Amino acid sequence: MTLTTEASARIETTNLPLELTPELAELRERARRFVDEVLIPLEQEAERLNGRLPAETIERIKREAIDARLNGGLHSPDYGGQGWSRIEWALVEEQFGRSTNGIYWHIPNAYNVWDNASEAQRERYLRPAIAGRLKDAYAVTEAGAGSDPSRIESTAERSDAGYRINGEKWFVTSGDVAQILIVMANVLDGADSQPTLFLVQSDADGVEYVDDPGFTHNYPEGHPTIRFTDVEVADDAVVGAIGAREVRLGHRQGAAADAKRRCRQIEFALQHGRRVPRDIGVIGRRGGGRDWSQDDQPEQDGGHRRAEIEGHRDLLEPGPDPGRYHRR
Fold it and tell me: Residue 285: which pLDDT band, with cuts at 50, 70 and 90?
């Protein structure tokens, strides 16, 4: 695809390439209204507070998200979720991406790996998470493996209590506020190792927060490094089956959600890139000897950003779920 300079400077809204049913249109409008009326008015306060909004504000976001039926999107209504299809989920995630500072993180939700959890695990953790009373965090990434399950080095060995977990996880998003950690570790069986998910209480003996690296964004929660040293968990801490492939691949949904939000974030930058420097007085217009309010870079970058949108949308390719949105 080739874009002319004129075309790249023209800002248009990109929408899902389908005709929305009245129900889908209502859901998208409900999500848009929530973003406009609840999230966007909090952006400058969040920026000034380095992403950390007051507790009472966070509780209001949770309450209004639940009232708007935007919590627990993909999870079953049996546990307080909405039971959305992938198309419904994609529509809402795009709207969330219109807001900066990740304020939508406060909308009660939980990782999709709970779909493979036992009934007891869902009642204990999933239900309160969707109700906004509990936070989970997904601990997969490691220094030498990234988030590739086949390369992780954390281990879970059999013990009298059940399993003994050792390892170190990097960039555990929301790990600084979560009550329950979903930890991926290799179950050792002789020479064989099987990546498996375990539920670990964040305050369990042997759980140590060793670093909280800074990032260039001001988001509501951190991405700490967490070390697990001889952490004992019971047999019922296993999520799904030992070495279950569908459990290990659960984190891909997060990548797809990031892609949908990124589409709207890029469009936001294209639409407001010239205006924002003028509006944010606490930062000022000048930096590095340049007047950013007069910068023409957004227009020059338009074609590249538009191509990036299409690239992110292409992450949503056909999958085993026939209701999953895809472009091809």
Answer: very low
CA distances from residue 305 to 14, 62, 68, 257 in whole angstroms, order as listed? 12, 32, 31, 18
In contact, 43 and 265? CB cutoff 8 Å: no
- CA dist., res. 229 & res. 298, Å (int): 48
Q: Which CATH architecture fits 5-109+251-313?
A: Orthogonal Bundle (1.10)
d(CA 80, CA 83): 9
Q: Angle 252-272/86-96 helices, nearest 10 degrees? A: 40
Quote the pLDDT of residue 247: 59
pLDDT on residue 252: 54
Burial track 12-51 (b if 16+ CB lie within 10 A, e otherwise): eeeebeeeeeeebeebbebbbebbeebbeebeeebbeeeb
**CA-atom Rg of the chain in angstroms:** 21
Query: Domain 135-240 is of which CATH architecture?
Result: Beta Barrel (2.40)
Element (H, E) at 196: strand 192-201
Could you tell me the residue ranges of all domains in the chain? Answer: 5-109+251-313, 135-240
Length of the chain measured in residues: 328
* Predicted model pTM: 0.76
Q: Residue 186 and residue 58: Cα distance in Å, rounded?
A: 36
